[in-house]
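Two proteins were folded this term; both appear here.
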Amino acid sequence: MFMLDRGRTRAVRRRGALLASAVVLIVAVMAVSAGSAAALGEQCSGSNVRGLGAFLQYRAQVRWGSSNELGFNGSSSPYACNGSQGAGGKPEVSYTPTDSATALRAWGAQDGARHEEAFGFPVRFLGTDIAPAGPVGEEGSMLNKMHSALGSDVVVVPVTQTAIAIVSNPPALPGHAACAVPRINATQLQKVFSGEIKNWRQLSAASDSNLGGDCDQAITRVAREESAGTTYQFKHYLDQVNPAPLPCTGKTQRTWSQLQAPFDGEAPANTEWPRSAGCQEGEGPVTTVAKGGEGEAGPLQFVANNHGTITYASLPEAEDKAPKQIIELHNGAKFVSPETESGAANCGAAKYPLPEGFEKGINVDWSQVYGSNPKIGEAAAAAYPICTLTWDVVPANAAGLFGGKVATTLRDYLRFLVFPEGGGAGVRSIGYQDLPGYVAEAGAIAINQIGGEEKPEEEEEKEEEPPLSSTGTVLCNVQPEYTAGTLACPGGQQFTSQEIWGSVIEPSTFQSTSGPKLTVTCNDGWVAGTFKADGTTVGGGLAGMAFKGCETSLPESPEAYLYLEGTPYDAARFVYIGGLAPQGALALARQGGGDVFLVLQGLGEEACSYRATFLSSQMVNGTPSRLVIQGTWELNGGAEEVCPLALQESAQTTLQWAEGPLYIAGQ
């Protein structure tokens, strides 16, 4: 009885602490409204905005920018804009993924000059896993250069946190059983990526440590080709494990922290790893850099398809691209997973010391705020040791630079993101974790600094963002040319037909993530529809999309067939994104609204119906042009003992018209 009473007392105290934290955040967010009302408009009275930033945020930004019940335009949160809050507007927010360094470079973090023209659209906020370093008054610092480029103080807002997962695909040697390495400790992980451990059999968790055994193969490390925020955070963790200078890093040996820098000429330290043919004598290749994929997709797909490889990636991307290859990592007390049973990042115990000057909210240097701790298990036994914040960046003088309506939406959107029942609720089931209350409060203080001197009304009307469905999109018959900061169709080469179609070019996969275990692999399929040159529909719009020739992992159901339900999608549209891949996207919609549904046939007498909870269809110009589809689907109808409760989709199709590839441009 006494122990039970103590437990109840602790629970009451904990609930009280959580409630107090929530109240503090609500007060801070309310202060945002009061503090910025003079410069900005009423809630939800702003215009559309588009951001540029880290791949780590991409799945979150897609969810946040949606009109479903978890998105900015659909949530019932008092801080959303679903048409019933504030002025009743529904300003749209979109996001183009790239690496953190490229995003920061767009606003001058490298050289003090803005470079937005390369993306073909006005960048209104940045997403980054590398917080811009200061102080702002120190010449040459990132904050100093961004301040000069923008002519404004800088607001840096933490928006969510996630884990960095370790993803591996151990050897499968001919004539041997498959090698298993389900976990790794911190010391051995650091030695793998420094090149000191070269063979899978050297790992303590390897299923066979014998020379010539099942695991006797060289380890191939796979890393991001470009300077990346995920690499920046991962190398900090490795530096915590081993802060000493590393062999094979040049004449002057460097530490992991010295290999973090995102900017450094043509070959930034961020992209360098301990390696050299002369230095790393051993048992085969030690390092390879995956190419052929945007962001983390390249390394993850390379590891998923090649035995003997290992990489690192943000948990949301790892769960999307290589869920079966994620392994446990030791936290100083025991081996733990980066993901909780609910699908959130296992980062609830991560500690982030607030940076100096956070209470001012402007030009705050978050660059030394890390969430990784190799020994976090000593304080929280089940906690994962590599976690990180990720930030959105806007100018404090957003109204002066972009106009009051844009600044109003930036304030409203960021306020929605930091609130736990807004942005937090939207993404905690797809590999992210709510911000700690004190971090969210610091973010709310920063949001309060967004404002500036509003432009005159007539100027602001010229600057207002066009609707995302407007004709800032042009479909082309031939490869577009890069002109004046955007892709443009050569004269007279706009899309003149109406019919487009495509076929599956790589095996499409649908994997269960909840419920009965299932993998469906489809080697054939099609997509077809009718569209105008401005990317909008004509006739029925997207007539259909189907996947056939599908094999399942179930011996009793070897064949399956999948297709989009509810076609045609008569309000579908192509949207131009920018000059770098992906150049565009295909948005699925119907005139009457509603969700997107997928049907899976072949598992039994009754079909399985699924509702899309996340769906990304990106267009990449090329020969052929491609539609790259990533999606997550939840069961909407069907027998739960047969149908998986959730599916994860990865597919690619061509996009073409009667005489060749279809292209997308902005002019």
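Next, the second protein.
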Amino acid sequence: MATRDHAELELNLNLFFRAACEILSAKALVILIDDVDMSLEWGFKVLEVVRRYLACPLIIPILSGDLKQYEVLVMSHFAKELGISAEMRNLSWKELLTPSDLSEKSNAALPTMARGLAGEYLKKVLPLHQRVRIKSIPELLHTNDAPIHIECGDGGIELNDFLRQLAYALSFNANGVEGSCPPVEIETARELMQLLLILYRRKLIPIKSEEWSKKTWTTRDKRRVLADAMNEYWRNQSMPELYIRAQADVQLLAPQPPARLSDVAFFDPRQQDQTVANYSLDAQAAILRARLLKSLADIQSGALPRTLLPMPAFETISRDLFIRKADWRKFAIPGTDAGTRFMMRLYTHSGYYTSYQTANLLFFGRPLEMIISHLLGMIDQKNLRSILESPPYYSYFYFHPTQTTNLNIESSEQDEDDAASADDHNTGVLTTGDFEEKWLVRVSTWYERHPMLAKRPPSAQLIYKVINKFFSQINLYKAPLDSTTAIADTLHDQNLRLKLILMNAFASFENDKNALALENFALGELNHYRSAAAWNLNIVPLLNPVEDTFVGAISTHPLFEDMPPLKEISLTSASSRSTMKDNKNDRSEKKPFVFNLYSLRNTANNLSKEDKIINTRILRSIFGKNLHERIKISGAPNGNDTNITADMIIDAIRSNANKVTGRSEQIASQIMYIGGEAWKIRSIMTAAGRLEELLHLLLDMQ
């Protein structure tokens, strides 16, 4: 009966379609069917209607949708028919399409059968030769001879320029080095239209043609509105790693900013959504611990949160960096200089448990957070107290504040003099209230002398890159690969070291007109820092005038000017001082890597479409199929996988130098500034901390 009804319906539909064509004087009718793939419940039924009743010469059905989701809904139907629907219902579409996942969750034969039936069914309903793949926006931008143009009112702009302007505004003040100005990636026309409408409704898209420029969204008010718009867009696009960055800019640009930097989830992995975080801090910490003595590495083990974007390992504990007990007793009592006590409090931490005694260990995270907070205008008693009374920002104790730690500082006579106890800590260093009030007045005066800080505060992206570079370099200093790292003797030296590392970190991303020296001030000789390449190439060009740059503002911060003399406060044990003296000559011979940023950017801007294609083909031939596929799927590199992939990239390029010769500068510029596959390479090498090494290798081949 059902078969007869089906045949009658099919016959009547054909008669209906024929009559419609005669009335419309048409050869066939086109039926557009959209969003079939959006419903597991009804999607298969719609496909069945197409298969049974629209397979007619008079009908041209056009279905749109994601082919992978079509596969899922058809596979789900056949899985239900095969009796495994309960298991299938709990799997994501990626799991449904992965045989190994399914075989672990159910009888392996049934999912294989379901996949096979789904594939054959779709070949019949959606014939292979009639499938048309719509190009993504990036593909259109790279393959179309005619540019894509956005028009609004009497103004307009090419899409490529629009996306570049938008990326610049979102990474305001960043020069693009080491991925500091990531591109805004739009995949589909629907996403593009939604973004344009969000910006238009907030009056962020210019109407007049002369208003389209790189500075379209760079005033403080426009940046805040833009960040809020991108916050909404990326949240709706389910892009948490981008949403959290825009959210950070909204918070930092608000009239009432957060109390401190670590109150912003973008800068605090502990607040990030662990269900979608892709990057492993545990893996980064494992890389750090491999550089340490086993006893010290064991102390600093423990679970860490995952992050939405790559972050460096936490600031490690160093047993060679603490204030000696004799100095602590001398300065940390009431009646001594309050400024000295303030500095000792800012730089040290002893709020942890131990089986023997508590040393006042030196950390750089607290002064780093304080200075960045001041650049953002977070200048009040609440901010200062919160920073001083919490474990140092991004240190081991920041993630494990109540951890019991046995540093194995021996109870010999020498060590009794070198380590300060918890009782000594409480005798006077906390009593800095009078100085704090004067300190905040000085910081407020400093902030007013730099009006650009209020008008153009650093973006969340710039701060993120600075924090990554800062802690990566600090950990090279505190967790050396060998015994050749010099350790400064006094708190004065460490304060100067912090200043130089932080200025250089900002200069690395703020300086966009000069050559850059990729040099670690943490490992440099402090007595001769003014002759260092990083000082002269990175920092000096940003010091005139000092009011116009973040580097200039940091150089005059009260922490580094008019502070009490700190040269009498020793920080290291006799053994580490001896190691420093024995190895100064070895380290002074190392030369920094210098490359011309302006030249690389010009090279990237002048690359033709043909050049980009040729360079991409060269890289593919160098990498081979396996490494190329590995790079393509490394959208969220982390831990050992990242380091292995980075090793493979370096080895492949080094082994195929003959293929790169003549184009190495072009390839380096493409990796630094162009999207697509080059962006994947840059992302992997940045996450592995080896982008500088890759650039060095390529430019040496020129």
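Residues 439 and 558 are 8 Å apart (CA to CA). The two ends are 79 Å apart (CA to CA). These notes refer to the second protein only.
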